[in-house]
Structures are given as C-alpha cells and as structure tokens.
Design goal:
The protein is an alpha/beta fold. The protein is built from 14 helices and 40 strands. The protein is globular and about 75 Å long.
Length: about 525
C-alpha cells in the first residue's frame, strides 16, 4: 500500500457522524497529507481501504480498494479480493498486479508479453500482499457502478457500468454496459446498456450499441480473446465469436463467426455479408469519421503529472510500414487468386476491391512518410547517406504510446532480472525513453525513404521535392473525398423527421437550425489533413 497513516479518533468520529460505518476502522488508511472526511457520507468500508485527498464518496460499499486524490464515487460498489486482475483469459493465465504506480504501458507488458522468459515473475516480485486495487486520480464513478477486481485509470468516467476483472486505462468513458476481463486502453468509449466488452483488448475504441462477443465455445470454458487494435469501431449490434484480431482503425459491422484476423489490413471495413466476414481494405481512409477521431482525441485527453502521453498521430514510421506491408499482402493475394473472391484469414475479399486498395495503401504510406519527413526535415537532412535498417521499423503500440521494440525488449529483460525496485522506476525509464525516442524515429524515416521510395541520398532535392509534391497531391485529393463524405450528413434523406408540422421549406430550415455547426465540424475533422498539406507546401 502507498505511504499512509491510520485515521485519527477525531476523523473516525467525523466519518461516523456522516453515516459511515466500517467493519474495522483500523483497516482504513488515508493519505498522510490532504485527507478530509467532509465529503464522505453513508458509506460502508468492509475490510481494507486507502483514501486519498479531496475525495467525495457517497452511498457506497468499499472493500479492498485505494481511491486516489480528487476522485468522486457515488452510489456504487467497489470490491476486490486482492490486487490481482485476471485479464482477457477468465481461466486466469493472464494477470495484472495492481501495484502503486501502475500505468497502461506496464499493464500491457504484464498482460501480453507472457512469452518473455522471467517477465511475469519479475512483475510478481514488484507487488506486495498489502497492495489494493486502484481507482486513480480524478476519476468519476457514479449511478450504481459495480466494480470488482479492476483498475480504473485517471480521468476516467464510469456511469452505471459493471466491471469484473478489468483494466480500464485513463480517459475512458464507460456507461451502463458491462466489462468482463476487458483490457480497455486510453480513450475507450462505451455508452449503451446492452453492450458487453468481454475478454478483449481495446484502445481508442468506440463500441456501438449492443456490441457483444463470445469467449466461451462450450468446450473448455471462457478461454478465448479478441484484439481490437487502435482506433477500431464496432457498429450497432455487432458480434464477434472469439478469438479474433482486427487491424488498426477498422470499422467492424455485423456478426462474425469465423475468427477473422485482419491485423495486417488496417484502415478497413469488416462487414458481415451473407454470413461471411468481408473485408473492404483501406476503405476507412475515405471516411471522415476516422479523421474526426484523430482530430478530437488530443483535445479531449486530460493529462496527469509525469504521465506517459499517448502518440495521437498516424504519420508514424510504424503506420507507414504497416501500410506498405498491407499493400504487399494484397498483391500476393491477388496474384494467387483463381477467382473473383479471395479467401483470407477467415474472411473474404472481392478481387475487384483489392486492386484499388493496394494503390490506396501505397499512396497513403508514401504521403504519411513524406508528411513526417517534412516535420522532421532538419533532423533527417543531417544524414548525408541512408541505409535500410529494418530494426528501426519495429515499433510497439504500448497501449497508446509507440516505443521501439528493441528498447522495450531491454526494459523487459531488466524487469525479469530484477533491476527495478518498484513499478515507478519502470515508468521513469519509459518516460525517459519517450522523451529521447526522436532519434530512432528519424532513423526510421530516412531508412524507409531509402527502401520504399528509392531516395538514396537526401541531398537529391529534386527527388525529395518530387515525392513531397506527390504526397501533397494525395492529401489534397483525400481532402476533397472527405468533405464530400461529410456532405452525406445533410444531403438526400438525412432531413427526414425535421420540420415537424411544417412544409418542405420549414423542414430544411429546422435541419439547418439544429445542425448549424455541421460545416465547422467537417472542417475541424479535416484539420489533420490540412496540417499535412501545409507541412508539405
């Protein structure tokens, strides 16, 4: 448990006067500075608890939890059997230890890198029997939440939500639905009573109403999992029979039973059609909704002191490489295809859709690479010559933040070797690496320009300028496509139901009045694209 002190007799009296009771007040510890009983009322403390500064706790049951500074917990139940979260696999072979200083990045390593020798044992040594499950700082939990054996990250809001053995990272908003053994990365959103997030990894994820999954095939128990890479959305009524893995920034609609794996085809639509999972590769690039997400996340993300801040943009070496590799995957599939339908990883792809998707992947990869070069031109031009260095392309999305794989391998080996005395020291190391990773990013940019674009020397300004002009044109064409997509929100039959009791003209006026900001919203959504164009100009 964190550095703490027992309640004073005076504080116990204050708490009891406000309707609070405890099985044993000696088991309730508080922060050494800033604790006040003023806003804690009608709450039952059953067993161990830790209370931070400036809390509001009303009408709750608290057992086995630490609630950190500035959080609000109202009419909810928080109970934990210990400090261990059984994540993704309900059989218990993936665990996260709630230890002081736990972050999304550390939880990711604990949960997913079980194949690293000694890593799980290293993490286990850093936890203590006195550690409690955690509600981090600046959290709001209200409207009848039931939280069991779960971690809740800073600036997260839970309303009427049930969480059992979940890790919920910072800046999430989960309301009225249910999470079981779910790993919710930053900015995960679910806002519907009928939605179940079960045994899955989600990051920058948005769940449509009645989103559901099955991790139990009625053989050996609930042992399966699903991975939703960064930026995935699921449509209303979507269903996934696990296991499954969806690529970054994909839109998943319908019911999927054949364990689809679209991880190598990001930015796609994955649609149910006649009982099959059909991939429309690269289609999500043309949807303004995805770009709106990219624009809104940085403005909505609330920081915490010394936190590892997510990387929000997609002009990153890892995405550039993913897109070029996606084009390669499709090229190989088209070459081998004998008919009009390509079968791939539990899915179907129409051959006629694959060919334009190849060009989209390549053009977007080239454009994003040159946009990142334009931002880092001075640093990149410090390299007189370039060589391909594939190792610098291998980056891990460590639950919102990109790190070079070799760097993380070293950190994890240090954990396995017991070189860190506490979790905070690992966070300090990751924070330092995040601040100093720009050199590796620059090397990756230069390397990719050599390998993918044939730029052998950055002093060849004619070739560099040619590629920048091509990238700018790609973004200008995309901008037109996105603004056209935005118009679909107001064209055609989108005014149905407006102007009640009025004529057609009044219907149009009512729609215009209610949605007077649509044009501004569209322009805000494409700001990312305009910034790329400006950088390339």
């Amino acid at each position: 448990m964190r550095s703490s002190r027992p309640l004073t007799p005076s504080e116990v009296t204050q708490l009891e006067r406000r309707g609070n009771i405890a099985t044993d007040w000696d088991l309730v510890r508080v922060t050494e500075e800033g604790f006040t009983a003023l806003n804690i009322r009608n709450t039952y403390f059953r067993g161990k608890a830790y209370l931070g500064a400036n809390l509001e706790i009303v009408g709750c049951t608290i057992s086995g939890y630490e609630i950190l500074d500035n959080s609000i917990v109202i009419n909810s139940t928080l109970e934990a059997d210990g400090n261990t979260i059984h994540i993704l696999n309900e059989a218990g072979n993936r665990v996260i230890y709630c230890t002081p200083g736990l972050t999304a990045q550390i939880a990711y390593m604990e949960a997913f890198h079980t194949y690293k020798p000694g890593l799980q044992e290293g993490f286990k040594k850093l936890q203590s029997e006195d550690d409690l499950c955690t509600v981090a700082k600046d959290v709001k939990i209200k409207n009848g939440c039931t939280i069991h054996n779960s971690y809740i990250g800073h600036h997260t809001v839970l309303e009427g939500f049930t969480a059992d053995n979940c890790f919920i990272a910072e800046n999430c908003h989960l309301a009225y639905g249910e999470g079981v053994a779910a790993f919710c990365g930053p900015m995960t959103v679910s806002h519907h009573k009928s939605t179940l997030l079960i045994a899955g990894y989600y990051s920058f994820y948005n769940a449509g109403s009645n989103t559901n999954s099955s991790n139990h095939n009625y053989r050996l128990g609930p042992i399966h999992q699903a991975i939703y890479n960064r930026g995935v959305k699921t449509g209303s009524g979507s269903y996934v029979l696990q296991p499954a893995h969806f690529g970054d920034f994909s839109m998943v609609v319908g019911k999927h039973y054949n364990h689809p794996n679209t991880s190598k085809l990001p930015f796609s639509y994955v649609i149910e059609k006649e009982g099959s999972s059909v991939i429309f590769p690269a289609q999500n690039f043309k949807a303004i909704g995805m770009w709106r997400d990219l624009a809104k996340w940085p403005s909505r993300y609330k920081l915490a002191n010394d936190a590892i801040v997510p990387d929000f943009s997609i002009d990153r070496p890892t995405y550039v490489n993913k897109l070029f590799q996606a084009a390669k995957v499709l090229e190989e599939l088209v070459e081998k295809a004998k008919g009009d339908i390509i079968t791939y990883e539990g899915c179907r792809i129409q051959k006629i859709m694959a060919k334009p998707a190849i060009e989209t992947y390549k053009s977007m990869a080239q454009a994003l690479l040159m946009a990142r070069y334009a931002k880092k031109r001075k640093e990149c031009n410090a390299f007189i010559g370039v060589e391909g260095d594939c190792e610098n392309w291998k980056w891990i999305d460590l639950c919102g933040s990109w790190f070079n794989k070799r760097v993380i391998d070293t950190v994890e080996q240090n954990i396995a070797d017991g070189k860190y005395c506490c979790v905070d020291k690992i966070t300090d190391e990751l924070f330092f690496l995040q601040q100093t990773k720009q050199h590796n990013i620059v090397k990756a940019i230069v390397s990719m320009m050599h390998t993918y674009l044939g730029i052998d020397d950055l002093s060849n300004t004619e070739k560099v300028n040619e590629e920048m002009a091509k990238a700018k044109k790609t973004f200008e064409n995309l901008l037109d496509t996105l603004l056209f997509d935005a118009q679909r929100e107001s064209n055609g039959r989108m005014t149905v139901g407006y102007g009640l009791d009025g004529d057609a003209e009044e219907c149009a006026k009512d729609f215009a009045f209610v949605h007077s900001s649509l044009d501004d919203d569209a322009q805000a959504a494409v700001k990312v694209i305009r910034d790329y164009i400006a950088a390339l100009s």
